[in-house]
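Worked Example 4.2. Consider the chain below.
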Amino acid sequence: MKKPTKAILDGDIILYQTAFWVETNDPNEIPKKVKSIIKNWTPNGVANIRVALSCSREDNFRREEWPNYKINRTNMYVPEYLKDVKEYIEQTYFTETLDRLEADDILGINALDNIAVTVDKDLRGVVGWHFNPVKDKEPVYINEDEAYRFFCKQWMSGDATDCIPGLWRVGPKKADALLDSWEPEEWEERILEMYNLEKYAVKDPCGLTPEQIAIAMARCVRILDHTGYDYDTFQHVLWNPKGGS
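Applying the procedure from the previous section yields the following structure tokens:
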């Protein structure tokens, strides 16, 4: 698999890192700080970059699936210079936003013919090229088996930082052990069965049935990949279980 010479960067993280840095430094240094981060985030051999930026949290399609999605961030502190940093990035670099999608989704959709650059581990559930500028020396390719396992593990264990509960008391280690005990072709069926068991039930179901919760959890943890967006209709494609509709 030939490594791309293009990269798409997680602009949300660049934006917030810079904005927080500015609070204890000179605001006139915004351009210098952004350029420094982007330089460090650009993999060797890359000649073309884009910066992905999220839609508003309220507009994200996952809120329709799970009302509590990232609800814990509603009253979080907003850095004073966040708007200034965003304006600089938009004026200086080629940026991409898509209605109702997060920057992570834009990275995932483009990860086959671009290197997706972020420090967010969730992108490892997407087939394609990835580069974590903090941990990786070179871009790595995530294949379908690796991405699918990561997704199923996240589907069970959820993500507390985003208010995605997953199965009650099923953390990453237990999720890994369960996946090891099943055949890959039965993973989805097994996980759906678990969401229907009372002992694993979500404690705040938001009025959803166990089946609806199972689908909502999957759609919340799954970062969109190259199959997840139709550029002809400008619509994202919702995940459904194998054999579902």
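The CA atoms of residues 239 and 245 lie 9 Å apart. The chain has two domains: 6-142, 144-221. Compare this with Example 4.1 before moving on.
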